[in-house]
Amino acid sequence: MSDSVPSIISIDKCAVKTPEVFSAEEEAGIRESLRRCPAKAVEEAIEFRKTGDPKHLPVVILGIFERFVEPDLRPRLATADSDDLRVIEDLGLDSLTMMEIVMLVEEITKTQIANDELRQLSTIGDIKNFVDCRARGLPSPPSATVFDNAALLERMPIQPPFLFLDEARVSAAKATASYRITGQEFFLQGHFKDNPVMPASLMLEALGQLGVWYLLAGLPVEEGKVVGSGTIFFASTDGVRCHRVCKPGDVLTLQLKPKRVKAPLAVFEGSIRVGQEKAVIAEEITLTFGLVDAPSPAPKPEAESAPQA
Amino acid sequence: MPRVFITGVGFITSIGNEAGTVETNLRELRHGLATYAPFAADNIPVKVIAPVRGFETDAPDQEDWVIPAPYKIRRELLRGMGPNVLYATCALEQAIADAKLSPADVSNDDTGLYAASAGSPGTLTRSINRMHQMGVMRCPPLSVVASIAGSVQFNLVAHLKIKGSSGGFVSACASSSHALGFAFDEIMLGRQKRMLVVGSEDGNVDAILPFAGMRALSPNTDPNTASRPFDKNRDGFVGTGGGVGLVLENEEEVMRRGVTPYAELIGWGQASDGHNVAISHPEGLGLAAAMRRALKCAGMTAADLGYVNAHATSTPIGDVSECKALRSFLGEHAARVAVSSTKALTGHGLSLAGAMETAFCALAIRKGFIPGSAHITELDPACEGLNIVRATQAASPGVVLNNSSGFGGANVCLVLRPAV
């Protein structure tokens, strides 16, 4: 694969594709392929193919998922936050079913999703975004990068025993992380007496830490600059609701979506779940940060270009 | 010396989807043949098959199939199946229940699974057509495992969580007899305590009709006479599909579990014609040699035999060749040993045939009857000297030989006797 970034100029070329002539056979083909999907998905797919307008696609994609998801899980697709549903963990679809879904999406939307692209699509929202970008002729959203615990420890200004992230995935649009409450955390000794519960304030702290990591690892900034790791501080939070008590053994799934990011402020909306259950919602979490000059890149070792013997 | 017993059987066949119905139809010589609607077109010279009852698997999409109770198969499993795998799954499920095996008895280091099927040509054809018409990346992701010759064991070994030996056999109409023979060896060699064996075929247009081009299928439009092995006027075989499963276990397992076996599998043998890719040896040399080896393996001779379930498929050449082999092998016992072909009732199950007919023999041994060779109006003079039984006999068959012959001149014979 080439390292070149897709040119931003291509965005201007094709906001909405010109529809091709749509034949009765094509319509029959779509109806046949989608016949186990909800009726509105079929109609929206036909509209999409007639007009080329990507606004029809979300319903089509949700409808294709509905067809493959076990009946008892289908109601989850109708909830407001269905974009956040992870296809494997939350919807119980295996990788072969994902392939069937991708094949149907490709067929209906006339797009191609390559294997390495497929691997990056973990939620329904990821897939909707991806297909939407394709339909608009935009470059695909950059894929999420996965950071393990060692990567976090190396670059985070916050360290154990006060680091509440085990691993993280970061893309320009979103950051997710997991944290398992081990039961060994120092604060559990007193919170509460004989009843270890992770404090709500530390759950917010964990979301804030994910915000720090997003700024350090995921934020696109101007060339020659980076976010200074010593410049990030908590500013404010708003609209916090706790729904569930979290105890040792629980695995927290943290998620942040940037709402507005412009130095020196980054505003996120955040959530924490345990499995399918909501634990914490924060409508806004705001961090401050500063940009510093990027360190000059290390010179490339000569050996790399030299032939081996 | 280890001993091998048949402790469970399961049937998805044209003459019944459970042992009781199959036994009644075998005893009463009621056939499973019918006029087959997809052969109605004038340019199709064949009109009759022996269809599996209760299932509808002609739809290209598995989710449109009709699967009768009590069988339920989840979509994620069904998508990897052709009709042959579906039939095999139901038949083996039945055999496992019949043998009273727990999930732990099925999934362990000492239990293996051998399967036999030619694959699902209809499923394969549709996938390949789709790939050519719609593009390489539109070929269904499970099209390969759902269609190629190994698809039965791919699916069943995974679904049943088999941990022991597994594999498949592809020798056309001798396939599932090969599977049984090598499963017998697996137990005799002490490698496994228990083997599940299943044979199956689609039995639909794409699986059967290609045999019309080689003039092997009967053009007879009457389901009552289309399959008539050993009859002078036979004119080809009638195709069938379905699945038959058997459970083989060593003596130790039979004793431990306290089950009553149907029969003991006491030996098998095989020999090849080395003659023609599709036509059996005119003198039946390979088949006669296979019978001798099977009896030798069982420590017996023709004198010990009571009944032969013949391969006889109702083709003009094949049945004659088998008659010659039988006369040569049985010698002075030819006039005594009962011979019949149950293919008069079921048609020819191809890869399924060996397992189906071995399970028929197991039923006959346990229930004490010899199924007759149906639909013979005028016995072919080529059968002279043989005891072709035309009516069912209410007598224990004693030691039984089951013959199978496949393309390439593969001949496989299995020997069974009552379990004592």
Explain what the structure shows.
The complex is a heterodimer of chains A (309) and B (420). Chain A is built from 10 helices and 9 strands. Chain A is an alpha+beta fold. The mean pLDDT of chain B is 97. Chain B is α/β, with parallel strands linked by helices and 420 residues long. Chain B has 14 helices and 13 strands. Chain B is globular, with a radius of gyration of 20 Å. Chain B has an 11-stranded mixed β-sheet, sandwiched between helices. Chain B has a two-stranded antiparallel ribbon with strand order 2-3.
Helix amount of chain B, in percent? 25-40%
Give the number of DSSP strands of chain A: 9
Helix and strand sequence of chain B:
EHEEHHHEHHEHEHHEHEHEHEHHEEE
SSE class of chain A: alpha+beta
How much is the average pLDDT of chain B? 97
Oligomer: heterodimer
Instruction: Note the run of SSEs of chain A as H and E.
Output: HHHHHHHHEHEEHEEEEEE
| Distance linking N and C termini of chain A | 26 Å
Question: Average pLDDT across residues of chain A?
Answer: 84
Major sheet summary line of chain A: 7 strands, antiparallel
- Largest chain-chain contact? A-B, 10 and 9 residues
Shape of chain B: globular
Strand content of chain A: 15-25%
Helix proportion of chain A: 25-40%
Q: What low-confidence regions of chain A span 5 or more consecutive residues with pLDDT below 50?
A: 1-15, 302-309
Task: Give me a quick take on this structure.
The complex is a heterodimer of chains A (309) and B (420). In chain A, 33% of the residues lie in helices and 21% in strands.
What topology emerges from the helices and strands here?
The complex is a heterodimer of chains A (309) and B (420).
Chain A: H1 10-13, H2 24-33, H3 39-51, H4 57-68, H5 74-77, H6 95-109, H7 115-120, H8 124-136, E1 145-147, H9 149-155, E2 167-171, E3 174-180, H10 200-217, E4 225-227, E5 233-242, E6 251-262, E7 265-274, E8 277-288, E9 291-293
Antiparallel strand pairs in A: 1-2, 2-3, 3-6, 4-9, 5-8, 6-7, 7-8
Chain B: E1 4-12, H1 19-28, E2 34-35, E3 48-49, H2 75-78, H3 83-98, H4 103-106, E4 111-116, H5 121-134, H6 151-159, E5 166-169, H7 175-188, E6 194-201, H8 205-208, H9 210-213, E7 242-250, H10 251-257, E8 263-272, H11 285-297, E9 305-309, H12 316-330, E10 338-340, H13 343-346, H14 353-367, E11 387-388, E12 399-406, E13 410-417
Helix pairs in contact in B: 1-14, 3-6, 7-14, 11-12
